[in-house]
Amino acid sequence: MVLSDTMTPRKTISGPSTVREKILQEAKRLFRKKGFEGVSLNEIVTKSDVKKPTIYHYFGDKEGLFVEILIRMLQQGQLYIRNNNKPGQTLRRNLQDLAAGYIKYSPTSMMAMLRDADEYLSEDSKQRVLKAYDEYIIQPLTELFDEGIACGEIKSEKIKSGEAKITSSRQLAYIFIGLIDSSKTHQNNSAILPDNKTLITAELLINTMFDGISV
To answer: pTM, whole model, 2 decimals?
Structure first.
């Protein structure tokens, strides 16, 4: 779920693909900092050093640009989850590693950007984002929890609520995201936290999820 920027030097635009990528990178930085509503198309145009018709040509409008950025971020999240699912390592440790990476390197709250999508985007755009969120984040995490249940690290009978049969691994995926993202929201400039503090925070979150807070 690490959604970090790759910082590249500014350079002369040499072709359509470079123009498009430059717009995406500049707009992504702005949206992360200010949110969807806080960024104007004029600001994106100025930062990207292009004209408005170029934005319209590639993305349709500000909403189309925001949707593409969100979906790309979610795809990066999927890659991070897949790459950090280490065979032979416990589910608890895999989740601690994922949480530590998200807390340390993600420059913004993922849920804040998803809330912007829910509040400001059209229904069609909103559904595209939600579908991508499910495919790229929730499904890989659900599979991770399925593995934990299959190997006995999580007892499936402990994640049923009365008569309601919870889709246990999927519900746990949402709980995991909520925990780490809420911690991210309360951290100020957490990208520069020392490694030991990041690891302690990640371990606390995942241990709380596994063990609860009761004595």
So the answer is: 0.83
